[in-house]
Amino acid sequence: MCGIVGYIGHREAYPIVIKGLKRLEYRGYDSAGLVLYDGADLKLSKTKGKVSDLEAKATKEISLNGTIGIGHTRWATHGVPNDVNSHPHVSNSGNLVIVHNGIIENYEPLKKELIKRGYTFKSDTDTEVLVNLIEDVQKKDNLKLGKAVQLALNQVVGAYAICVFDKQKPDEIVVARLGSPLAIGIGENEYFIASDASPFIEYTSNAIYLEDEEMAIVRLHKSLKIRKIKDDSLVDPYIQELQMNLEQIEKGGYDHFMLKEIYEQPSVIKDTYRGRLHANEGMIKMAGVEDNIEKFTNAHRILIIACGTSWHAGLVAEYIFEEFARIPVEVEYASEFRYRNPIITDKDVVIAISQSGETADTLAAIKLAKEKGAFVFGVCNVVGSSISRESHAGAYTHAGPEIGVASTKAFTTQITVLTMIALRLAKIKGTLSKTEYHTYLSELEMMPEKVQEALLTNEVTKEIASVYKNASNCLYLGRGYNFPVALEGALKLKEISYIHAEGYPAAEMKHGPIALIDEQMPVVVIAPKQGHYDKVVSNIQEIKSRSGKIIAVVTKGDEQVRALADHVIEIPESSDPLSPLLTTIPLQLLSYHIAVMRGCNVDQPRNLAKSVTVE
Ligand code: M6R
Prior knowledge:
Layout: E1 3-8, H1 13-23, E2 31-37, E3 42-48, H2 51-61, E4 68-74, E5 89-90, E6 96-104, H3 107-116, H4 126-140, H5 145-153, E7 158-166, E8 172-178, E9 183-186, E10 191-194, E11 206-209, E12 214-219, E13 225-228, E14 234-235, E15 240-241, H6 257-263, H7 265-273, E16 277-278, E17 283-284, H8 287-290, H9 293-297, E18 301-306, H10 308-325, E19 329-333, H11 334-337, E20 348-354, H12 360-371, E21 375-380, H13 386-390, E22 393-396, H14 409-429, H15 434-454, H16 458-468, E23 473-478, H17 483-497, E24 500-505, E25 522-527, H18 533-544, E26 549-555, H19 559-564, E27 567-571, H20 580-597
Parallel strand pairs: 18-19, 18-20, 20-21, 21-22, 23-24, 23-25, 25-26, 26-27
Antiparallel strand pairs: 1-4, 1-10, 2-3, 2-4, 5-6, 6-7, 7-8, 8-12, 9-10, 9-11, 11-15, 12-13, 13-14, 16-17
Helix pairs in contact: 3-4, 4-5, 7-14, 7-15, 10-14, 10-17, 14-15, 15-20, 16-20, 17-20
5-amino-5-deoxy-1-O-phosphono-D-mannitol binds at residues 307-310, 354-356, 359, 362, 405-407, 491, 495, 608, 611-612.
GO molecular function, one term: glutamine-fructose-6-phosphate transaminase (isomerizing) activity
Subunit structure: Homodimer.
Pfam family, one: GATase_6
């Protein structure tokens, strides 16, 4: 995935574009570029590397004037990250410039055809093919840019969000989307374009989110027109008021977004349940659930589809739904689900979990589930995202923008939403006793305070990080509700510190992974008092007898494990089902500190992007 930005109006475009790209760098950061039109010619600068490298280069090599400009921060799909493959790409005539987020799947035949027609290519990208295709279409019938873009896109197979302009007509930018997000900020005779609204939040709070297969021509002194790419029909623009504020997308004094987001968890969990959880009245009210309550209560099965951390939240939810609401649950990787022939009926409820709401595999899995007649409920963080719109109904997590590539607050807020749904169903189905139901409600309401307390583990995790920062491998073990937390802890460590880590159900250790244990192997064991405590203590003993180094996450005051482990991290007491909201906190902090100590780029780990909008 990539980030795209555009501006047209009365201000200098460069500062808006460069700042916008910095905010979108979470979407890709292996190369960056921008182009401005200064009234005479295009000023283009692009480079392999980060937006800061682009800034340094652009300041030296081009004049930074111009009130129209577009920019791009890239996560490479076609062609290695280098200066030439970076966007923007320019058409053969030198008139059209484009930035693109997505993949043009049929670019090879299109390229061959264009080569036959005399076009030449500098880069290996699909995007350079697209800009020349647009030019070719435009030239053939002397078309306006908007029409040429539309006809060209009708020849394209794939996904895109594009921003394109013609230096011969520098009063308009043409934008379009299919499968990749695109927002248009509307100011006073000025327009901001971006992959999400963060680049223009300080300029306007009015935005339009283009739908798939829509395009728009943003033109100075004219009102915005949106059309369907396929049939040219006009669409009424729906202008939304943005909920985001500037503070939410800045680091607020923290060294990294990831740390800020870890520390935000007490408050965002509260935001997640605010207005929904009413512990005193013994009620949970979630509009998306209530409006479709029969779908849930009549469901023969709940199928959860997601990727990465969201998939781990789905695994926690599997345990919770089955325990609380006694509905059978299956959890699937969206990428697997979409490519097999799953048995789905209209008695299934599919819950799609996604922080970004843009993950390509999850989106495709939803479409498949809908085709097969299932009711799809989306649990997303990003408001107005593709998955939230594609779902029949849903619930937002309200975690605020998550910018660090490693998901943290998304995980705990997803679990919060899913727990509330399970409790609501349990109440209707009578599958929990009254006492249990009310106790869980109150406990969930108290979670922000407990998570705050769990954050006090920061210092001890930092000390432990300094001991293991040079480890090559690490095992994470947990049982029951905390098995998915072990997976999540391992994922956090590997993605930001590049230490190989594996998560396992603790009891599975003896079926293989135990062979890995020696005095070099740190083993993080999640061992809260509730749940399968005695069994996990036995697992700890097995590790100890093989000289493994034990880092145990335990309930405050646990002396038994303290006597066995090399390090203990104490978290507040909780029930077993809600414990993942607490046990996950020190694991996030541990991976954070190890990554910082190893000099890794915590917020932008290598090879990754915040949301994977391509296959
Ligand atoms: O936006 P999504 O929740 O759909 O993203 C899913 C995964 O790509 C994401 O959780 C990824 O695994 C994170 N890097 C984990 O920290």
